[in-house]
Amino acid sequence: MKRLLLLVSIVLILTGCTDFEYSPHQAFDPDSPTDLNAKNLEKLLKITNDDTVRFIVSGDSQRSYNEVELFIKKANTIPGIDMVFIAGDLTEFGILQEMEWVVDQFSKLSVPFFAVIGNHDLLAKGSVAFQRMFGNLNYSFTYDGVKFICHDTNGREYKFNGKVPDINWVQGQMSASADVMHYIGVSHMRPFSDDFDSKLDTAYTNILNSNPAFLASFHGHDHSFGEYFPNNSRVPFVVTTTLGKKGFLLVEIVDDQIKYERVTY
Amino acid sequence: MSPIKSIAFLILLLTVQTKVFAQKLNFLIPNGAIVQHAGSIGYLSGGVSYDLFKNKRGSFDVMYGFVPESKGGSFSTLTTKLAYRPFEIKVNDWMVIYPINPGGFFSYTIQKDLDLTWDKGQYPKGYYYWSEALRAHVSLGTELTFNITKLLKSGKPQALTLFYEVNTNDMYLVNFFQNLQALPVTEIFKAGVGIKASF
């Protein structure tokens, strides 16, 4: 009996050779990846351009690793995809470990992926952890003539302080450029919803609408598919469901036209 | 009674009472001191330990830990730990192994970004359902205890214990139970090591 216990304990220690952790709230550990959005952009820019820009908008992967596994398999079977966006709420609790689990899974995608900040990702030390792992909360890049404007719209997390989304930054991103033919927005919360700063609803929507080359704005957070044209918006605000509900948006820009379809798996 | 006598009497009374009170507070004197590395309660933590139960197989520890900025902090964590040692293996007269010691602890992290409760003005009721600052953990420990009195023929400390402990917390468990296929159990357990001196 004693020998058995000794054996069991040795096995426990050896198999339980798990990571040493200082705190579930630590913003990074020696193994956490860094600057993933920039690294994925580098990969993306190496892809040879074609006539079509094709990408996936997924969202709210929180607490859904089983389903994310299936999503990765599905996404890897879709031909011609250039990249995948996670439109916020990668995590439930905004903790490092959840970000690492999600990144482990998304790294199995055959194409680059980009993370956009969600309200859950901002909780606790999440904002610090996210910025170290992925990069700035507001960022943009241009691929094949399309400029993707990814940004923080989680107004409630900032007590509706009138600064999120940063409409000056968004406005600045809209300035004309020779290599940009179209603009796309990706953010977690859509305007004219409960958690978006209502003081900025109109100004934000107007900025996006004022640029005729702005095609569509993509979002998560609602936990269901949706398409909105608030305040007679020309621009559609398109919402994806959660990865937990096994759905995402497949988006395609061909000949100045944008098409998006809801995919379930 | 003269004033001097009254004061003398009062002092005597106070002294006696303090002595009785101090004896009553004897239970506050810890049975051991602990220093720990990692284990989810700080890069480094330290604290005191109390023996529980007649057989002293139980323990109650109060710990203070710190994670410096260079290790992913910075913040402090206060922890209260309970553990029980159901099995005892006496290797020889100066070494004992406690192979599997189940336990649990609460950790409270003190940092401005971590709130105990949600701001009522900021969020509708029930918007989030957990506490950011307070974690509940379950743990499994293994201990190797050296009886210093017998080993070195010296009395202080009476014993030194090396321990290894793995734990998981409420947040990891929520993730785990919803994803039994995708998350192996080893992913949610995190380790720490420490040393305890028993007086």
CATH topology of chain A: Purple Acid Phosphatase, chain A, domain 2
According to CATH, what is the class of chain A? Alpha Beta
Name the CATH architecture of chain A: 4-Layer Sandwich
User: How many helical elements of chain A?
Assistant: 7
Radius of gyration of chain A: 20 Å
Q: What is the molecular shape of chain B?
A: flat
Question: Main sheet of chain B?
Answer: 8 strands, antiparallel, barrel
Rg over C-alpha atoms of chain B, rounded to the nearest angstrom = 22 Å
CATH architecture of chain B: Beta Barrel
Main sheet summary of chain A:
6 strands, mixed
Characterization of the model:
Chain A is built from seven helices and eleven strands. Chain A is α/β, with parallel strands linked by helices and 265 residues long. Chain A has a single domain, classed as Metallo-dependent phosphatases (Purple Acid Phosphatase, chain A, domain 2). Chain A has a six-stranded mixed beta sheet, with helices on both faces. Chain A has a five-stranded mixed beta sheet with strand order 3-2-1-10-11. Chain B is flat, with a radius of gyration of 22 Å. Chain B has a single domain (31-198), classed as Porin, CATH 2.40.160. Helix content of chain B is 20%, strand content 45%. The N and C termini of chain B lie far apart (47 Å). Chains A and B meet through helix 1, helix 3 and helix 4 of A and strand 6, strand 7, strand 8, helix 3 and strand 9 of B.
